[in-house]
Amino acid sequence: MPLTGQRVLVGRARHQAGKLSSELRQLGAQVLEIPFIEIRPPRSFGLMDRTIENLASYQWLILTSVNGVDAFWDRLRKQGRNKRHLLHLRIAAIGPATKKAIEQRGLAVHVVPEEYIAESVVESLRAEVRGKRVLLARARVARDVIPTDLRQLGAQVDVVEAYETVVPAASRSKLRAIFGSPSRRPTVVTFTSSSTVRNFVQLVGEKTALAASRQGTRFASIGPVTSSTLRELGLPVDVEASAYTIPGLIAAIVASSSG
Questions:
Q1: Are residues 33 and 44 in the same domain?
Q2: Of 78, 95, 144, 153, nearest to 123 (Cα)?
Q3: pLDDT, tens digit, 9 for 90 and up, residues 73-126
Q4: Residue 183 backbone zone (phi > 0: left; psi -120 to 50: alpha; other: beta)
Q5: Which of 119, 127, 222, 240 has its CA 20 to 30 A from that of 194?
Q6: Which of 217, 230, 227 is nearest to 249 (CA)?
Q7: Whole-model pTM?
Q8: 188 has pLDDT over 70
Q9: Which residue range forms the structural domain that includes residue 186?
Q10: For the chain, how big is the Rg over CA atoms in Å?
Q11: What are phi and psi of 146, to 5 degrees?
Q12: Same domain, yes or no, for 31 and 44?
């Protein structure tokens, strides 16, 4: 039980926290689940609905998260369409969890980049997209690396908002309570995206976040993009996964706890 004695704060959206939390518990950790992020439908479905009506005009579909897969398929179904309307597309998924979510819906994934970040998606598609029409379904707020770079490679890229992430206000008092109590303060805080970092700081405040890092709380990042956001906000990166996945994050936390 390598994580015995560790209090690990999991800030994933409530419906997604289960896998990370359960595996941490199996390794002996005491898990605190307080979401830093909440997933909501987009403010308008207009653009997505018009895009779904014109799916036949696209050659590529890029999905960058399980949330994006879930949201896109939900809207597809509500528009009276199904996987048959996507069979002509080549599909790129940013990582194994996204790939699995797509395959569970009966579709093949043609490209998964070596590294599960936007830059690697672009590199994987470099020779594939010139003159092609590409649909990217993603969160309302996201880095523009994929659409910008693919357009420079000669693709026509349409971006649709599949969902948005917001700060769950109900988490503010819960987080401030645990960070204000030495007996409850987490020994590790997990961050699975840049949004979770920004929202965490917004919820607890910069002073509390910095104080926690100086009082022995370690900040664990799922990968370099998330780590960059931590550093941008003046916070340390005590743990970084070498494989940018939930299993990779868990392995990094275990290694840092036993080192």
A1: no
A2: 153
A3: 999 999 999 999 999 999 999 888 899 999 999 999 999 987 777 788 888 898
A4: alpha
A5: 127
A6: 227
A7: 0.80
A8: yes
A9: 7-37+168-258
A10: 19
A11: -65, -55
A12: no
Of 165, 195, 216, at which residue does a domain stop? 165
Judged on CB neighbours under 10 Å (0-12, 13-18, 19+), 131 is exposed
Average per-residue pLDDT for the chain: 90
Map tokens 């970084």 to a residue.
240
* Domain membership flag for residue 220: yes
Work out the average pLDDT over 40-51: 90
% the chain with pLDDT above 90: 66
Q: Which residue has the tokens 């179904």?
A: 77
Over the chain, what HEC string results?
Answer: CCCCCCEEEECCCHHHHHHHHHHHHHCCCEEEECCCCEEECCCCCHHHHHHHHCHHHCCEEEECCHHHHHHHHHHHHHCCCCHHHHCCCEEEECCHHHHHHHHCCCCCCCECCCCCCHHHHHHHHCCCCCCCEEEEEEECCCCCHHHHHHHHCCCEEEEEEEEEEECCCCHHHHHHHHHCCCCCCCCEEEECCHHHHHHHHHHHCHHHHHHHHHCCCEEEECCHHHHHHHHHCCCCCCEECCCCCHHHHHHHHHHHHHC
Q: Are residues 53 and 158 in the same domain?
A: yes
Q: Which amino acid is at 259?
A: G
* 85 and 133 inside one domain: yes
